[in-house]
Write a structure and sequence with these properties.
The structure is a single chain. By secondary structure, this protein is α+β, with helices and mostly antiparallel strands. The protein has a single domain (about 5-90), classed as 2-Layer Sandwich (YaeB-like fold). Helix content is about 40%, strand content about 30%. The protein contains 3 helices and 5 strands, in the order βααββββα. It has helices at about 10-25, 30-45, 90-95; strands spanning about 5, 50-55, 55-60, 65-75, 80-85. Strands 1-5-4-3-2 form a 5-stranded mixed β-sheet. Helix 1 packs antiparallel against helix 2. The protein starts with a strand and ends in a 6-residue tail after the last helix. The mean pLDDT is about 90.
Length: about 100
């Protein structure tokens, strides 16, 4: 299994999504967090299972929420760096600016 690191930017994205869902209905934020945790665990086990989208960045889309988790793999260190958590309606220009620091 790979070690997961969450950048400050990705943590902010996740927090923003959680706050929005929780403001819609109590408990929806927790449901989003549970789904995201499952996805992150799967990425840690199978980091190359998801599509390579640009440069060295891969994206896994959540099955029940309109979000994509953007990450990169550092194979030698056995690390996964979470770069961003973006709504699928957001412009690709926004998420392409988050380049991995490798």
């Amino acid at each position: 299994m790979y070690t997961i690191y969450i950048t400050e930017a990705a943590a902010s994205d996740i927090r923003g999504a959680w706050l929005w869902y929780e403001s819609q209905k109590t408990g929806l934020g927790a449901a989003l967090r549970a789904t995201l945790s499952e996805v992150i665990e799967d990425v840690a086990l199978h980091p190359y299972a998801y599509q390579l989208r640009y440069d060295a960045v891969r994206i896994v889309f959540l099955y029940s929420y309109p979000y994509g988790l953007h990450y990169t793999v550092r194979e030698k260190q056995k690390e996964i760096i979470l770069l961003g958590f973006f709504h699928t309606a957001q412009s690709p220009k926004k998420w392409k600016k988050r380049k991995p620091n490798q």
